[in-house]
Amino acid sequence: MRFVVVTGMSGGGKSTALRMLEDAGFYCVDNLPVLLIEKFVELIAAPGGEVSKVALGLDVRADQSFDDVRKILEKLKEDGYKFEILFMEANDRTLLKRYKETRRMHPLSPDGRIEDGIRKERDILSNIRIKSDYVIDTSSLLTRELKEELDRIFVQNKEYNNLMVRILSFGFKHGIPADADLVFDVRFLPNPFYIDDLKHKTGNDAEVQDYVMSYPEAHIFIEKLTDMIGFLIPNYIKEGKYQLVIGIGCTGGKHRSVTLANRLHERMKDKGGYGINISHRDIGQGV
Questions:
Q1: Angle CA 284–246–270, to nearest 5
Q2: Which stretches does DSSP call E strand in the chain?
Q3: How far is the CA of 204 from the CAs of 15, 167, 261, in angstroms?
Q4: DSSP state of 202
Q5: Reported pTM
Q6: Residue 183: how many CB atoms within 10 A of its CB?
Q7: Exposure of 135 in the CB half-sphere (CA atoms within 13 A)
Q8: In this predicted model, what pLDDT tens digit does every residue of 156-169 receive, in sequence order?
Q9: Which one, of 167, 175, 171, lies nearest residue 255 by Cα?
Q10: What are 104-143's pLDDT values in tens digits?
Q11: Which pLDDT does position 1 carry in this prediction?
């Protein structure tokens, strides 16, 4: 039997992950009272049971101590029960935005500031997060991309390291992304903006891609960048980094940066062992 404990930050995507696991054939139970967890595991793990895949959602609530949850999980492990922990994560800014959009109060600060609840919850969950088998940061993930990551881990059973790589194209005229870990400037390449037939197209169009990649420097850049990223990622994983944002910028964020971000994504997407997505922040900005 495959048993997955799904936990994480409130607003980090736990409920969404449980729904997706249910669609993938898991028997899912959410918000089970702490006192029933041990008995529930005993029942589903009993010989002859029909359930082969189970996901149990556990979260921080004001009416119970999460220390009790940790103790029960430790006891289950001592008793020989095998389970994996999936931790759903998001940065503070994203969590705050999600709470404001849904007009919900944080469970740890029902009468106070949401920021205080988020901070308290991070402290409470810090220990279980370290011990988690999988950490997925949903700050910049689309629903489709989250499903792909969960399918890769729990359906295709592929190797997964707790690192989500996000390739982000942008325009320097609109500001450097605040969350970028690595920033690369591709303004050394000729700008398609000054070609009348290409001005209103983007790096998602074949004509712009052909123009940008017609210069040898573009190929050399991608080769060297891919090689460097390939060196960095295993070391980031070893140090426990769970999110890497690679920013590629040009003047407006529509042509060169989009083209090269797409090329980098194509080279990295099949490497395996980590999640990867791509977005073009300024591609919709007016010319």
A1: 100
A2: 2-8, 27-30, 53-57, 84-89, 134-137, 160-171, 182-185, 243-250, 273-280
A3: 34, 15, 10
A4: -
A5: 0.73
A6: 15
A7: 23
A8: 877 777 788 999 99
A9: 171
A10: 888 888 777 889 999 999 999 999 998 899 999 998 888 9
A11: 85
Dihedral class, residue 157 (left if φ above 0, else alpha if ψ from -120 to 50, else beta) = left
DSSP conformation class of 181? S
CATH superfamily, with its number, for domain 2-158: P-loop containing nucleotide triphosphate hydrolases (3.40.50.300)
**Token code pair at residue 216:** 């040898």
Q: What residue ranges do the domains of the chain occupy? A: 2-158, 164-280
Q: What is the amino acid identity at position 177?
A: P
The residues pairing with 164 across neighbouring beta strands, listed in sequence order, are: 243, 275
Structure-token pair, residue 119:
């901070």
pLDDT score of 141: 85
Report CA dihedral (6, 9, 10, 11) to the nearest 10 degrees: -100
Q: How far is CA 238 from the centre of its chain?
A: 18
